[in-house]
Amino acid sequence: MAIPKEPRQLMINIMYLVLTALLALNVSAEVFNAFKMVDKGLIKSNATLDQSNGTLPGAIREGAKKKASLAKYADLIDPGRELSANMNDYIQSIIDTMVNDKGYVADRETGEITDELKAKKDYDITTRYLVDGPKGDGNGKGAELKQKLIEYKEALLALVEDDPATTDVNEKEKFEKEISVKIDDESWKKKGKPSWSHFNFSHMPLQAVLPIFSKFQNDVKSTEAAFLNYLAGKVGTTKDLVLDKFTVVSAPEKSYIIKGEKYKADLFLSAFAGADSKTGISISVNGRKVPTDKDGKATFEETASSVGVKKYSASASITNPVTGKTDTYKKEFSYEVGERSVAISAAKMNVFYIGVDNPVEVSAAGVPSNQIKVSMGGGGGATINKNGDGTFTVRATKPTLKGQDAKVNVSAPGMNASKDFRVKRIPDPVPKLSKSRGGGMGSGEFKVQPGVFPVLENFDFDAKCNVVGFRLVRVAKRQDPQFAVNKGGKYGGEAQSLVKKATPGDKYFYEDIKCKCPGDAAARDIGQMVFNIR
User: Fold this and answer.
1) How many structural domains does the chain have?
2) Residues 119, 231: one domain?
3) Structural domain of residue 395, as residue ranges?
4) CA dihedral in degrees (129, 132, 133, 134; nearest 10)?
5) How many Å from the N-terminal Cα to the C-terminal Cα in the chain?
6) 411 by DSSP, 3-state: which?
7) Which of 188, 276, 382, 446 is least surrounded by CB atoms within 10 angstroms?
8) What does the pLDDT average to over 135-147?
9) pLDDT tens digits, one per residue of 12-26
10) Of 135, 116, 104, 107, whose CA–CA distance to 39 is shortest?
């Protein structure tokens, strides 16, 4: 681009470049993390495809042994897989070149290399390497990649031959529809871009381009899987699948039931061929035959008469319609019968605090929540209310002594229960100035503090205490002490004046600090603080 001679136009051009740079820098970390997560997901998917593709060749070669005419399909395994491996390695070489251009970030503390790219926001490497090319003529690796993907697809298609015995299906056309490797030559033309590689990679951050290449690798591996499945279909491995392992499955509605309820479970033979199969299935429990439906499923039920673990033996017999041979499979199952019980627990602590909401959870085994009644008794002036989510909230008004605890009472059909809870007032908060309870503090930091505030340390409830007042004493070198009585936690006029006088060597005493917490009838003394001004 020619440099304009007019100062105004030159300034506009510079501002445009600055704006473009700011926009590039403003891409959020969340977006780059999303690209990273997508790339990791594709890499994981590729590993799964590799594992799947590694098991099919053995089955194809085994199937090809059935007839001499099928050997030609087994001979196509290695050429097809070699094409895919070469294509995948070529794509990986492009990824490695771009990544190794800048490398990965090292951990600041350990020095170990992380998976964070140094050039994740860099679009120069992608544009220069994939689009522009070494000569800057637009013949980058992207154009070469496109051509190699086309050649890979055509080479794999050439290994597929039409079956002369099949007149209604063109094998090549059918297989081509299964190929995942496809080149979109329409979108970039509609957008008016110079080329396919320019449309896909120009000025794209490296972190955003990596998932695209992982997707290309995924397409190659998926295409390899489609080719192997085509060969498997030719030798019959996908049609002659035999289920030769069976087991009895018990699917109970509940494995733990209450005395008086019925235990109910569905029993069926795993891997059953289907409702239209002519194989006969017979299921029995403890030697007693259980009727089966058209799908070969039987339902077993019995009434629980006592508590404890109950066991039963189920067996299933299946007859091979071809050989007439009957095989029987047995398995032991168990379930547990228990009594109804009630559980009462404070969700945060095994104590109730005055002035705050105390969450309580109540449950009764085998009883619907709308049949459970909860009430309060005992001391502490406590009340209880039910929440929309089925839990309860207790509010207490006064502390309890030993033997006078608050009591949560629960009643449900066939049972009653209760639990005692101590009632305490909220523990004393800790007074603080900034993040400190005393000691040395710089004069600058000391002067900008707004006042004293209380902190409830290690307290799980949502409660806020407020400072009612305190006495501030300034002791400076070779001067008489100066006093100020302050109302509230925030500095008033007199206290603020004393604070502003702070110089290194001064001591400040915060005495008689009073505070009120939720539920307090009167203010409580929470101690004092001493600060040495540096």
Assistant:
1) 4
2) yes
3) 342-424
4) -100
5) 60
6) strand
7) 276
8) 81
9) 556 555 544 544 445
10) 116
